[in-house]
Specification:
The structure holds two protein chains of two kinds. Chain A is α/β, with parallel strands linked by helices. Helix content of chain A is 31%, strand content 26%. Among the domains of chain A are: 145 residues, P-loop containing nucleotide triphosphate hydrolases (Rossmann fold), CATH 3.40.50.300; 59 residues, 2-Layer Sandwich (Alpha-Beta Plaits), CATH 3.30.70.980. Chain A is elongated and about 75 Å long. Chain B is an all-alpha fold. Chain B has one domain. Chain B is built from twelve helices and no strands. At the A-B interface, α2 of A face α1, α4 and α5 of B.
Chain lengths: 304, 248
């Protein structure tokens, strides 16, 4: 469990993190999302005791990070995968981390095996691709078999196979009852990975919610209906209280009514339906709507 | 602290540059002892002043050797900042005082062991050459053993100062320049300064202190050892205060 309470970080005149409070619970994957520059990395660095908060506090398992005795056994973190000495081998890099926290040497081989780097354990990090460095960073996070895991933009620069791998790893960690906290500036990455969301913008909390609720709150749920007698159906649906927009001669977008009820009404009237599709509100759209006011450098709309 | 030290030891021995630098330092220290003593025999090198301090002459190579010991110390800190690995290191050892102490201890142990051994080899090699000129001294002669141990201590001090300056300045070039200014500066450019500056400022810098404690004539005073220790203690303390306050 990670708890953040009134966390604030000021750099000169810039308020990078502004009275941020949230909790990250065990057993689920919690996504930490916000536009670039929203304060995600700064928050994570403060959780890890790397940066000192101007005000407020962050605790892991109820204690400030700096007070943890062997922190790697409590918290595994991936901040910047490229931040390894280029001339040190993957094995020695992990061994030095293991020794600093009294973690058995055998664990180094185990995690290298898990992330698929066992074959290149003796090679220096300098020859690793970004994807391999990402895997090395994840191996380091897993080293102490910690109940809390924290990943800053873990999917950045990965190929589709690597992304799928990280996703399944996150899900597996959560299923084991661990606390999994991962940040991204891309909402779309969270859709299939996260259960809960902490959304921030300009250093402030925008939403702390489940993915489902977040989607529902951000967009109106709509159902796409295709029917040969669209006009007759539209009239009935409107009378029943739904919002109906006719998109084409046979296509209706119906809001404020679940698909099942639409199907029932059509059946009562004996009207054929060729398509009845609940529109999945796109997470990205919901995200844009919620963070619109808190984007630090909004892009100008391009008109041709 | 024990675990943090083990980790620092692993880091030092898993980077090839550690070996190369220390090897270069050993070669420079011993090589210079040979060059100078051979040169004395052929008349290519002459001793200024009225006394011939055989022990001190064979340890003159330390003047070069100190560079690599200082750089090894500097790099233990600055390479972490340059690569960004300092964050991973601090996530593993969040108590910064413990981390700095571990780095100081690792460098201190390596520099003391290797520095003293290298100084001893330089002394013995130099004296072997001087023996052919009938002006060698032995380790048992007055002041010799102390000069060798002092040379080892000086190399250790330079390694420790390197760690402290690396922690304070965080950039390799800046930290190396700073420590060279302390160790080599006074000897290189001291003559350019007025006598008052030489006697009251440069005299107290680590380099001149090192020159005095590796001499046997006049024998070094306790004050010089205290001054060298004070340099290390002061910069290490300053580094400790700064690294605790600063964001990584």
């Amino acid at each position: 469990m990670i708890e953040v309470n009134g966390l604030t970080k000021r750099y000169g005149k810039t308020l990078a993190v502004d009275r941020l409070s949230f909790r990250v619970e065990p057993g689920v994957v919690t996504g930490f999302v916000g536009p670039n520059g929203a304060g995600k990395s700064t928050t994570m660095r403060m959780v890890l005791g790397l940066d000192r908060p101007t005000a407020g506090a962050a605790t892991v398992a109820g204690r400030p990070y700096r007070e943890l005795a062997h922190p790697l056994r409590q918290v595994g973190a991936l901040l910047d995968a490229s931040a390894v000495h280029p001339r040190r081998s993957a094995y020695d890099h992990l061994l030095s981390l293991a020794r600093s926290n009294a973690i058995a040497r055998g664990r180094v081989g185990e995690v290298l095996e898990t992330v698929g780097l066992a074959g290149v354990a003796g090679r220096p990090a300098r020859v690793f691709s970004l994807g391999m460095r990402q895997r090395l960073g994840i191996a380091a996070a897993m080293l102490g078999d910690p109940p809390v895991l924290l990943f800053d933009e873990p999917i950045n620069g990965l190929d589709p196979e690597g992304i799928a791998w990280i996703r399944s790893l996150m899900r597996a960690f959560a299923a084991e009852g661990r606390t999994v906290f991962l940040s991204s500036h891309l909402m779309s990455e969270m859709e299939d990975t996260a259960d809960r969301l902490v959304v921030i913008g300009r250093g402030r909390l925008v939403a702390e919610t489940s993915v489902a609720d977040f989607v529902a709150s951000g967009t109106r749920a709509e159902v796409r209906v295709v029917a040969p007698q669209a006009e007759a159906l539209a009239d009935s649906l409107t009378r029943a209280g739904a919002g109906v927009v006719r998109q084409d001669t046979q296509v209706l977008m119906v809001s404020g009514m679940p698909a099942a009820r639409i199907g029932d009404i059509a059946a009562e009237l004996g009207l054929a339906l060729h398509e009845l599709t609940p529109q999945r509100a796109r997470l990205e759209a919901a995200f844009m709507q919620l963070t619109r006011d808190s984007v630090e450098y909004p892009g100008q709309e391009v008109r041709s | 602290m024990r675990h943090a030290l083990a980790a620092e030891w692993t880091k030092l021995r898993s980077i090839r540059s550690t070996y190369w630098l220390l090897l270069a330092g050993a070669a420079a220290t011993v090589g210079l002892a040979v060059l100078i003593t051979v040169g004395l025999g052929t008349g290519k090198v002459e001793v200024t002043g009225d006394t011939f301090d055989a022990a001190s002459i064979s340890l003159l190579g330390v003047w070069f050797g100190q560079i690599t010991f200082a750089v090894v110390g500097v790099l233990t800190m600055t390479s972490e900042y340059a690569t960004g690995s300092i964050r991973g290191t601090l996530a593993a050892v969040p108590r910064r005082g413990v981390l700095l102490a571990a780095k100081l201890a690792a460098i201190g142990l390596i520099a003391a062991g290797i520095g003293t051994a290298v100084s001893l080899v330089a002394f013995l090699t130099g004296q072997a050459v001087l023996a052919g000129q009938n002006r060698a001294v032995g380790l048992g002669d007055p002041g010799s053993a102390q000069a060798v141990l002092s040379a080892g201590s000086y190399l250790t001090a330079m390694g420790l100062l390197g760690v402290a300056l690396g922690a304070l300045l965080r950039h390799t070039v800046a930290a190396v320049l700073a420590i060279l200014a302390l160790g080599l500066g006074p000897t290189l450019v001291g003559a350019l300064f007025p006598a008052w500056v030489r006697d009251h400022v440069l005299y107290h810098l680590p380099g001149p202190i090192g020159n005095r404690i590796t001499a046997t004539d006049p024998p070094p005073g306790v004050a010089d050892y205290i001054a060298l220790g004070a340099w290390v203690a002061a910069l290490a303390l300053l580094a400790f205060v700064v690294i605790r306050r600063r964001d990584a």
